[in-house]
Amino acid sequence: MGYQAFTVQDAIERVRTLGLIGNEPVTAEEIGDGNLNLVFRIHAGDQHLILKQALPYAKVVGESWPLSLERAWIEQSALKEFAKVAIPFVPRVYHASKEEAFTVMEDLSHLTIVRAGLLEGEKYPLLAEHIGSYLARTLFYTSDFALGPVAKKQIARQYYNPDLCDITEKLIFTDPFYDAETNAIEAGLEAEVDRVWNDAELKREVAKLEALFITKGDALLHGDLHTGSIFASADETKVIDPEFAFYGPFGFDVGQFIAHLFFAAYPKYDQLREERIKDIDTFWLTFASTFKALWEREAVEPFRSADGLVEDVLSTILQDALGFAGCELIRRTIGLAPVADLEQIADPTVRLERKRHALRLGAALIKRRTECKTFTDLRNFDVTEELS
Ligand code: SR1
Ligand code: MG
Prior knowledge:
50% of the residues lie in helices and 13% in strands. By secondary structure, the protein is α+β, with helices and mostly antiparallel strands. It has 2 domains: 102 residues, Phosphorylase Kinase, domain 1 (2-Layer Sandwich); 279 residues, Aminoglycoside 3'-phosphotransferase, Chain: A, domain 2, CATH 3.90.1200. The protein binds 5-S-methyl-5-thio-alpha-D-ribofuranose (SR1) and magnesium ion.
């Protein structure tokens, strides 16, 4: 069967033909509110399913931005790979079709999307720990350190993901740093954006981070690990949507998650900053201690017990992550695909102030990332005073 974008009826028929539901009455709707795909929720009797289908273009822009359907297969493969090493944090997949670019998986409606939940004031006491553990495991186990260089290269070659990497290269590392058409700059923010565009040191550092993103194939990344890619409750966490997966630098997913924890503080900055900084702290400590324990137990790297080596690897991951977090902060503030954490701030004066803050924080993280030897140094990145 060749590819065709599904209607709700097509989605129901597919899951029925696959034997995933019987002949009981069905309710189904298209619920996709992301930037790229169709997402159908299907309920039949006790069965609750999600069918996700890739579209051959970026939904957020339209058919003028074609995208390869291959990304559905990349996502399906990454979900399988991540389930092998981090099963509690990965949704169950019931069926994957490469040809029709769709995946049927468990419905996670008993959980909430973390960005939306945090905006509603929901608490996720285990989120930071869970994501720290998820990332330590997915990154370590797909790296040379666990697999050895031969097996790692055999896996890595399945994950060329040029279209989706191109989105990231353009939208995170390029467009926000000049007057690109894709940018969405709120009126009143122009002077601050000019500061970004005229900062030669900042642009040089962003270019270095982009080069890292393009050339450093440390591990299989999720590739788009923002709080809209995570479902959670008080005790459960599931990471969805790894269609941007590719072999990239360790620090990228780590940095994206950190950036979105910063964003989550902006709706009520005075109240939430400390809470989110604590989350970042817990996240990093869990990540670093889990990665180190896995290294000590399972690394196949011949120099694994060299004095200080794993500490140096972790310190590089932290510095790269802070740089990537800075790029993500800038990109979601003035580029395509903004975040509700900022956009939903009702008071325009407060909203502009928080956006200025995000741009300054982003620039500081990028330019001063190498000052951070340990996580404690991140607390010095308060740029509030500079703004007044
Ligand atoms: C054209 S896609 C825009 C953004 O949506 C995805 O979730 C990624 O974050 C991408 O950068
Ligand atoms: Mg996504």
